[in-house]
Records
---
Amino acid sequence: MKALVIGSGIGGLATALRLRKLGLDVEVFESNEFPGGKINSKWIGKYRFDMGPSVFTEPELMNELLQLAGQETFPYRNLEESCRYFYSDGCSVTLPVDEKKLIDVFTSQFGESEHKVKRYLSRVKKNYEAVKPVFIEVSLHRLRHLLNTKLFHALSRIPFYGLRSSMNDNNKLFFSNPKTIQLFNRFATYNGSSPYKSPGMLNIISHLELNIGPAMPIGGMVEITKKTYEACKSMGVKFNFSEKVNQITLSENRVCGITTNKNTYQGDIVVSNMDVHFTYEKLLPTVKAPTNILNQEKSSSAIVFYWGVKAKVNALGVHNIIFAEDYLNEFECLFKTKTQTNDPTVYIHITSKVEEGDAPIYGENWFVMVNAPINEGQDWDEIIERTRANIIQKVNKTLKIKIEDLIEEEEFSDPRKIEQLYFGKQGSIYGNSSNSSFAAFYRHPNFSKQVKGLYFAGVTVHPGGGIPLALNSAKIIERCVKEDYNLI
Ligand SMILES: Cc1cc2nc3c(=O)[nH]c(=O)nc-3n(C[C@H](O)[C@H](O)[C@H](O)COP(=O)(O)OP(=O)(O)OC[C@H]3O[C@@H](n4cnc5c(N)ncnc54)[C@H](O)[C@@H]3O)c2cc1C
């Protein structure tokens, strides 16, 4: 059997590897000239930048994947602190990856009750562990996946998930200090959503970073792509770069191949790692699109400045957040008015803090990101200029430096570029947002219910946004293909 994979994002690469391991002949088509989709890297002068993702959790998923190819474990380091937070009133905290010290930060610096902090961290851990085997690792759309022994445990915890209240409302039940609430609310942005609209269930995201702690691949995030790409090639997966797929060809209700800008190809299985919205819009014009899924609100986008900074700023760590003063307003701008606030939360990621070769000896590579609304034709040139000025003002006020004098290299990315380069619908990063109680059920399944042989991988489909979830989408496809073609 032959499988054709559209796109070499991590979801596409992981699926290619898994289908090859099943014994299929696998060929990947990528419109860019490089693999990895958003997980790619670039040198700008003497500074190296990971261009997309920066937060890496659940490294065991990469180990598991590479081991299928007989490779060694994935090389990464655990970080000692998860993030440094700076607030508009000048207060700052560093969150250590150590339960006792972490609780101490919340109690001694934010005046929270030790009992409540412990209860919260324990609850998100238990919730995460309960939902993982029934919502994250399997298809929500196949009964036989759902009916496993863990289902009853997951159902028994429903009262603790906070399904009927927002993340923010849930966090307010536990914490008294608005600073703590803002910090925990922040995890909604990990899948491009608003904490004021996403269900309390999504507070489980904080478990991976606060209870377990973030990891960092040795050599940077791009190693996730490099190692998976090399593993695929070693197993005989064939790659075609600079080859854009224009259509998925069908024969009655089953796939029979693809047409690209260069050629046509026959296949028994097609896996789309392209944003599911564009897969229907551009590649499947004759198939009735599931509008109830595709018309859901989109996740947010991002503006990123890549700054080569000719100084060492000791106040910053690997991951840093400078919070907006009015957090609610920031999300109203992102999702309601689709404008860019003048007081955005600024995320600064500096890999050279631990990867010394990523910057010259005198400098640091700053990845400076703010959340942005999706592209609806706003005047992005004006927004970029204004946002840059706002970020500079905020960084200078917080860190007491003059950052504009220290930037010796600079590039930027914005929602238009995300749409053009990776085909993210309107520049959205994770497909649909999770801004409703039932958002998880409005994610597209990993297989087509209408077209036999068609599967979907990556962050725009089930189980959702982020690298671990894209890796899980590949695992789910592997299981579905095994079932559909009796390969067990
Ligand atoms: C600025 C930014 C920051 C992020 N931060 C994080 C983070 O910290 N942690 C995290 O886990 N995630 C983060 N993400 C999201 C992250 O990028 C995803 O989790 C993951 O990389 C997406 O993988 P994917 O498999 O969905 O595919 P993508 O990376 O979106 O790749 C899809 C690929 O398909 C190709 N393609 C599309 N259409 C076609 C076609 N018709 N023909 C051929 N090829 C096609 C595209 O060129 C692209 O290479 C971030 C994203 C951005 C943009």
---
Amino acid sequence: MKIKEIFSTSLKQKINTVFGSKKDRKEILEELEEILVLSDISIDLVGRILQNLEKKIKTGFEKEDFIAVLKEEIRDIFSAVNIAKEELPGNKNIILLVGVNGSGKTTTAAKLGDYYRNRGKKVLFAAADTFRAAGGSQLVQWGERLGLPVISGDRGADPGSVVYNSLMSFNSKDFDILIIDTAGRVQTKDNLMKELEKLSKIIKKVVPGGAAQVLLVIDATMGQNTLDQARKFKEFSGITGIVLAKIDGTARGGTVVNIVDEMKIPVKFLGTGEKAGDILEFSPDEFIDSLLS
Ligand SMILES: Nc1nc2c(ncn2[C@@H]2O[C@H](COP(=O)(O)OP(=O)(O)OP(=O)(O)O)[C@@H](O)[C@H]2O)c(=O)[nH]1
Ligand SMILES: [Mg+2]
């Protein structure tokens, strides 16, 4: 699946309809505001975009001008957080997946394992979700399906010990990437957030300078709640990137823009379905093109 196929109802088509008949500037702006809000761009961000638009386009109001300014605004939001296509930073890399319950962490872990394996990396999984009954076994099943090794623990076991064991294995064998799945948690549950800090500490201790990527997995289908999910994790400082899962369930691309604008953290991957291969590396240019072409 390509980014273009996801956002099939192009924003540009809707924008075209606004400029179809003669209207005054105020009417056009009102209709554009509605279209942007309906594409899931947050009201706050729409307000800012339109303000900038009014500043930049002083007279007349042609469709092409509007689209150019809109593209520029969205591009600015992405480039402010420097979403560069980056290779993994070191030889041995650790990816820790975090997020609220059911956001898509375990599935994303499996997808990333498959993704990097297909790029020649030796992958190890750690099933550090010992909280839920099926938490660990779900990743174990993925491991079996994909033919990739998984370090897991019993239900109720200390996730820290699972992570520690996986790091030992990761260090002693020639693995390139360790992908750690964790239990779903909300920020209001203090103990679970503390546990996350603890897992980070263990990683830093066992693999000094270990370039741990912490990816926040967010369910993209929840509209405004998607943004709330992201906010809940804002205080957990270690997050280095975002995975927007279930993007196949929303044709409205505004969510991607909101998240980056709110979190100031780059979106790295999009989840596009339930299968191992349903993952896309995020490209801002491709995204803007598919949304506005
Ligand atoms: N359509 C679609 N479904 C997805 C995607 N990613 C995950 N899912 C589904 O979402 C549900 C939850 O996914 P999980 O990976 O179990 O989510 P989780 O965050 O590990 O859940 P907890 O461990 O309970 O917190 C499953 O039914 C997945 O198949 C996606 O990109 N697209
Ligand atoms: Mg899970």
